């Protein structure tokens, strides 16, 4: 473990493109690696290696073309990050801390891959694991762990984002099936998934999670890819119409009855998103540090300038504070003591901090900061999605505010 950034070798400073950026350059100032077991560290390093060798070199092309990186999915499956903290069902069974660090590495490599994982693992697998019966877990989780079934979760609606508790999608019982009607929007993996958990209100007004298998081949399921995005361009987010979609009765998640059950999944997801934000910050910092060591202006490396060092120090300090908060959150999660307010504070702090880090990095690269070649531009754009999804900044702030005052300020 390197406690301080290692200077780039002279030969690396002479490389004119950004092909070697994205390497880990000493952002673990407080030695958090020491909290992982050897097995967990090896798995985390495997994710880092896969991102460095396979994801980072190809991410700019996927990003610019707004194409889904389907050919990277087998490699993603091999990292074992899908459902990593779940015990059994073919999952890695690591600690929440190790899983968080693995998610960090995905975002450090590419935001679209990290979002694919956040949806598949942090939402879809978490829904089945947290709220499914023993039979349902055995039925779906092993294939999802192998990413033979790619998951999605359809919760957000066209007119209900922050107030998604006002869920309008309906589920009515018809014999041995549930029939789903409504619309969903911003559904990650929605047009490419093999399994989708759709949240809807049943005849009694209760909230349920209904698993639609092979949705792309299901009558009444219409998923249209949302285009024109400036963030996470490589992941497929969809607007979905549900018109009489029939779901077998035993595909309703057994423990999903109220929105409080939904919140159990959202809490887990927000933890993942907080780690993602740290990953974007680390990726941008590494790109800026490498550039500052390599780039010469006025006859000396940028890194010798006081303003540049001040910016680098600010970035790595923010990263360290985010890492420490996420680490403690993961420790509480392992003890079963992490609350939705803990997750909200972590998501709030880490996405705000990541936004500041990527802005400093983008500025440090000057005109080159808007080019995909140096990777900082991708993180600068992609962190905007992380800042918003799984609950906007204001929603997280109100959750924390309610915790400290005992009074709800939600409208």
TrEMBL record:
- Which InterPro entries does the record cross-reference, listed alphabetically? ACX4-like, Acyl-CoA_DH_CS, Acyl-CoA_Oxase/DH_mid-dom, Acyl-CoA_Oxase/DH_mid-dom_sf, AcylCo_DH-like_C, AcylCo_DH/oxidase_C, AcylCoA_DH/ox_N, AcylCoA_DH/ox_N_sf
Provide the Acyl-CoA oxidase/dehydrogenase middle domain boundaries: 152-245
Going by the UniProt record, its keywords in alphabetical order are: FAD, Flavoprotein, Oxidoreductase
Cofactors demanded by this protein = FAD
Top-level taxon: Bacteria
Q: Where is the Acyl-CoA dehydrogenase/oxidase N-terminal domain?
A: 37-148
Residue ranges of the Acyl-CoA dehydrogenase/oxidase C-terminal domain?
263-404
- Which protein family is named in the record? Belongs to the acyl-CoA dehydrogenase family.
Protein known as: Acyl-CoA dehydrogenase family protein
Q: Which organism is it from?
A: Ornithinimicrobium faecis
